[in-house]
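Holo prediction — LLP.
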Amino acid sequence: MNNPFLWPDTTTLQAGRLWIGGCDTTALAEEYGTPLYLFDETTLRATMRAYRKAFAAAYPAECRIHYASKAFLNTAVAQIAAQESLGLDVVSAAELLTAQRAGLAAEHVHVHGNAKTADELLRALEYGVGAIVIDNRDEIARLAALTASRSTVQAVLLRIAPNVTGDTHAHISTGATDAKFGLPLDTLDAAVEQVLAAPGLRLIGLHAHIGSQLFEPEDLAEAVAVLVAQAARIRARYGVVIGEISPGGGLGVPYTADTPPADLGRYARTLAATLVEQCRVHGLTPLPRLTIEPGRSIVARAGVALYRVVARKPGYYLHIDGGMADNIRPALYGARYTALLANRAADPAGPPIHVAGRYCESGDVLLRDAPLGHAEPGDLLAVATSGAYTLSMASNYNLTPRPAVLLLTNGVARLIQRRETEADLLARDLWL
Ligand code: LLP
């Protein structure tokens, strides 16, 4: 095993084969086919519990952990989140429906998005979600109109662009004033006034999310400080108590052995201490609820992708049966991953080689210079930390079906998402 921080907690090697969750991954590939995504339930639950524990220990008032379901969602994962007392962040009608199917209490669901459709807003209102996180002033106007004739009042948070940017890839940096998300600070008062003028809306909190794959909690703490300063200003100017502060998600995970794992305890303590201190400085009592929205750091390491090596271009490439349609991250962000051969994981490393996806695009290279030059057709490639932003961003490029997903628990593999079929793919396709 090349790095325990990259693989699920239950990972072992038995007779040279990769086992996860008490299951032989080589046997699973035979039974279910490849590409195949495996999620280790033990790791998933342990990570969720670690989050709750770290924040409960760090913050003296109420704290909620909302899993950012865009990282990876299906009903089973939402059920696990609910069982572990996590809430859910959703950004579409079908994500909302999944939360409902999984039995999440509406109160623990927040709805995000910079361009929510009328249907999504209505369904959020009908479900009675805990909060809609408003991105822009047009959304306030639309929500005000939609709620005017309803008997219930919808709680909302305002998402600000705090002008704090974390150290991450430009595509996943979201905190700048000119980022596409959130209200610029100089428009916040107008937004507050607009919400206060809408009888169907109740302003309960402020939100910011500065980006993803961040390793410095200080960047996130800076956003917390901006949120508290704005909350204090809004209280002083409008007499509105901001009862919830949400600095978003964003904690990074290592994908390769050269990145040390983020320290969850330090992250929780830094955020909580900043919130407590800034509330003291600004005289904000009682302490607001702290809501955290981790996505990647909840699911990334619990997930492992399995591919079959199909062919070689000797000295240059291995060709596998998946790639950018199930994991676009290397092509989109230059993301790096770590892999091994699941059916002979104890073999010494081979010479470096690139691993090419099967899709018709030169950029479809899943791994570069991986020590897998000894691999042969028929071997199984296991790619670590594949749980986040892979299947949730999957496509049907080249009209290929999306992979099956298994949940592995103490030697039992449960199919939680079946493989897409040709019939699924052609179901929406109509003759002239
Ligand atoms: N809250 C909000 C409002 C978000 O937009 C996101 C992620 C999160 C929470 C969760 O952030 P996380 O803890 O997962 O970093 N596709 C990209 C990542 C996009 C992140 C989108 N927003 C990737 O594969 O790296």
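READOUT: The pocket of LLP is lined by residues 68, 70-71, 89, 112, 172, 209, 212-213, 248-251, 293-297, 329, 333, 389 (CB under 6 Å).
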